[in-house]
């Protein structure tokens, strides 16, 4: 059967995305066919589109969506036709009305959570879940630093931190974004265009600095992130929206107090089905309870995916952005 989808035949700017007809067949063993109701937009999509993260071409884009299972292949028992589902993770191809995909990343969606909310929260919400529970287990009363606090991941992180009693210092690029992060639970906000991040962190923590920095910005914030860590602190570099982190010497970690650094990926934390289900249960509970509200602040038709990428890359977006088939 035919379906509309976004495909790229070469890497480059938003203009390489084409809205085309694709043929969607029946699911094979271990697969499911999902009719999508909403699709999530994430910075990782930009990395694949530009070629920063290589993949064989031609290809689809997108790693997050929500919809209804139409058919399942042999061996698939955890979901069935008619189930409401959501997912995040590879393979790419979420920018589509209909897709055949690996069934092992599909999660049944609780009735309390709608398709648009689900599509906006899976990748970002599961990311916050593992960052706060496994990469570094945040504890009530601690003060942490989280960059890009008004973005999709950031607004979830602000609320999650508040819910567990953690003081989150969020960095943002404007007065409006500062107000947004504050409203969502950031204990302190630093506008990196008007304030010195390291100096403000020193002031907020009375010179103690923080035990962990969560940095998805990359090139523009990397060195300052290291400078905000106390001895034996952990630098969590989980993205590079401003560009890749330049090469650095390991002695930089020693001179700042035997720091740790990690570059985590959701794919590794959710590789085992039981881990994925536990992570999702935690996320669904946070959202269904109202402790974390998912802000879908931008919606674009799937056909306008290029416009959505332009808005995301130019930092015009706040919260989550979704595409609607």
From TrEMBL:
Keywords: NADP, Oxidoreductase. PROSITE patterns: QOR_ZETA_CRYSTAL. Residues 12-323 form the Enoyl reductase (ER) domain. SUPFAM superfamilies: GroES-like (SSF50129), NAD(P)-binding Rossmann-fold domains (SSF51735). Gene3D superfamilies: Medium-chain alcohol dehydrogenases, catalytic domain, NAD(P)-binding Rossmann-like Domain. InterPro entries: ADH-like_C, ADH-like_N, ER, GroES-like_sf, NAD(P)-bd_dom_sf, QOR-like, Quin_OxRdtase/zeta-crystal_CS. PANTHER family: QUINONE OXIDOREDUCTASE PIG3-RELATED (PTHR48106), QUINONE OXIDOREDUCTASE-RELATED (PTHR48106:SF13). This is Quinone oxidoreductase. It comes from Massilia solisilvae. The lineage of its organism: Bacteria, Pseudomonadati, Pseudomonadota, Betaproteobacteria, Burkholderiales.
């Amino acid at each position: 059967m035919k379906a509309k989808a976004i495909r790229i035949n070469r890497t480059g700017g938003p203009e390489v995305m084409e809205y085309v007809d694709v043929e969607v067949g029946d699911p094979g063993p271990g697969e499911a066919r999902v009719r999508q109701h909403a699709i999530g937009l994430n910075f990782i999509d930009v990395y694949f589109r530009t070629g920063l993260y290589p993949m064989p071409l031609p290809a689809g884009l997108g790693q997050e969506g929500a919809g209804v299972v139409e058919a399942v292949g042999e061996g698939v028992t955890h979901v069935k036709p008619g189930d409401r589902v959501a997912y995040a993770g590879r393979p790419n191809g979420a920018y589509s009305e209909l897709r055949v995909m690996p069934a092992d990343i599909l999660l049944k969606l609780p009735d309390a959570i709608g398709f648009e909310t689900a599509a906006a929260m899976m990748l970002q919400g599961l990311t916050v879940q593992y960052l706060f529970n496994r990469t570094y287990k945040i504890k009530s009363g601690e003060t942490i630093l989280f960059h890009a606090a008004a973005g999709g991941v950031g607004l979830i992180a602000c609320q999650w931190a508040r819910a567990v009693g953690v003081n989150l210092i969020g960095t943002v690029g404007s007065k409006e974004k500062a107000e947004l992060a504050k409203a969502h639970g950031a204990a302190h906000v630093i506008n990196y265009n008007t304030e010195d991040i390291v100096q403000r962190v020193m002031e907020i923590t009375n010179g103690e600095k923080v035990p962990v920095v969560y940095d998805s910005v990359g090139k523009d914030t990397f060195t300052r992130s290291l400078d905000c860590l106390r001895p034996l602190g952990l630098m969590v570099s989980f993205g590079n929206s401003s560009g890749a982190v330049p090469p650095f010497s390991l002695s930089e970690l020693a001179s700042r107090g035997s720091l740790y650094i990690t570059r985590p990926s959701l794919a590794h934390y959710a590789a085992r089905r039981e881990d994925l289900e536990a992570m999702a249960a935690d996320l669904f509970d946070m959202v269904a309870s109202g402790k974390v509200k998912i802000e879908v602040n931008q919606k674009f038709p799937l056909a306008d995916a290029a416009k959505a990428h332009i808005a995301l890359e130019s930092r015009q977006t706040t919260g989550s952005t979704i595409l609607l088939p």
